[in-house]
Amino acid sequence: MKKKVLLSSAALLASVTLAACGNNSNNTSKADSTTKAESKEKTTLKLAALESGYGSEMWPAIIKAYEEANPNVKVELTQDKEIEDKITPQMKAGDYPDIVMLALGRKQALPETLIKDKALADLTDLFDMKVYGEDKKVSEKLLNNVLGSTVTDPYGDGKHYLAPMFYAPTGLFYNEGLFKSKGWEVPKDVAGMKELAEKAKKENISLFTYPTTGYLDSFFPALLANAGGVDLFNKAMKYETGVFTSPEATKAFEAMGTLLSNVEPSTVANANKQSFTKNQQLILDNKALFMPNGTWVVGEMAKAPRADGFKWAMTAAPAIEKGGKRYVYSFFEHIWVPKESKNQAAAKEFLSFLYSDKAAEIFAKYNAAQPIQGVTAKLPEELKALYKVVDEVDGVINGNFVATKPVEGVSMKDTLYGQIDSVASGQKTIAEWQKSVEEVSQKLKAAVQ
C-alpha cells in the first residue's frame, strides 16, 4: 500500500560559548592570537533524527562532512525509530532541540501539534542564505514551487516554517519495455492519451488503472495545476469559493474523465486494501498502460511476476492542451526548528549545508533525494528513471487541504477521491462528481480554523 515516507525530527540544541576576551595590547603577538582562536569553544548542535528507511548511517555521514567543513561546530546525533518518544519529554521540560527532522502524518503528530500551537521558528531567511560552502542561495538551488505550499507555509502568511528536505515524486507509472516494443510514444497531453487509448484497445490493452481511489490524491492535484497553474491548485487547497467549478477546474475533471472512461474493467472490483496489488499487477502484465502511483511501488512489486522486457518508468499527468504546462505532485519530508530553540542562527547555517552538492551526494547514496536542481544525476541508476520526470516538467507541487473544524458528515477525501469508483463504473457522471466536490468545499471553507 502507499508508503509515504515519514521522517522524524532532527533536534539541534546549540550552546555557543565565546572565548574570554584577551588584553587588547598593541604588543599582542601572533602566537597569542592563535591561542585565543583555539580556545574558542565549539557550538554544539544536537540533532535528533528518525531512523527511517534511509537507514542509520546516513546522518552520521552528513555530520562528518559538515564538521570537516565547519570545525567550529560539533553535531551530536540522536536517532530512533520512535524519535518522538525521545524528544517530547525533553521539550515538555523546556529543553528544546534546535532542529527537528520529522515529517507530518505520523501517529503522534508532533509537528502538527507545534504548528497548531504556533511553536515553530520562522525559516524564511534560511532561503535567502548562501548554501554553506557554496556561492548560491538556498532558494536558487530549489526546484520550482517547493516553497509556498500549505505545508511549508502553514499559516498562509508568506513565511516558511518547514523546510523541504527529501521528496518522492508521483505520476503515471508504465512499462517502458512495452512502449519500445510497440513503437508507441508516451503522450504528453490529453488528446494524445485519447489516441493511444484507441491503439491499445485494438490489442486488448486498457489505457488506465489505479490501485485504489486514494492514489488519486496526488494525481488529480497535478491535473488541477496542469489546468490552471499552481495558483488554481493552491486555491483548491484553501477551499476558495467556486474554485472546483471554475472553467479551469472543469478541464481537470474532464481530463480525469477521459482516463476513467478507458479504465481496465477489473479495476473497480479490486480497488480496495485487500486486492489493490491486482491492479498494480495489470501494469506488469501489460493489461493496462498507465497507473498513478509513487516511487515506493517499485519495491512493493519487486517480487511480482512481469512481462518479458519489463522496465519501470514514470511520466507526469498529461497537459490539458498540446504544449500545455505539466506539474508533478511530490510527497515531501520536512525539517524544522522549534521556536524555543536557543541557537537558531547556527541551526540555519547547518540547514543550508543540507542543500549543498556535497550533502546531496551523500544523501543520494542512501536513496534520499532533496528537491534541488540536478539531484537526479546523483541518484542510483534504478532511481534515475523515476526521478527524471521532475527534470522534464514545469514544476513540483505539494500541499494538503488546510485544516478545518470537524463538519459532521463531510469529508473532502471521501467526496473528491472516494467517488471515483462510481465515476469509473458509470454510476455517477463527471458533472455530478464535480458539483458535489464544490458543495463540500464550501462547507469546509466555513469551518476553516
From TrEMBL:
<dbReference type="Pfam" id="PF13416">
    <property type="entry name" value="SBP_bac_8"/>
</dbReference>
<dbReference type="InterPro" id="IPR006059">
    <property type="entry name" value="SBP"/>
</dbReference>
<feature type="signal peptide">
    <location>
        <begin position="1"/>
        <end position="19"/>
    </location>
</feature>
<keyword id="KW-0732">Signal</keyword>
<dbReference type="InterPro" id="IPR022387">
    <property type="entry name" value="Bind_CPR0540"/>
</dbReference>
<dbReference type="InterPro" id="IPR050490">
    <property type="entry name" value="Bact_solute-bd_prot1"/>
</dbReference>
<protein>
    <submittedName>
        <fullName>Carbohydrate ABC transporter, carbohydrate-binding protein</fullName>
    </submittedName>
</protein>
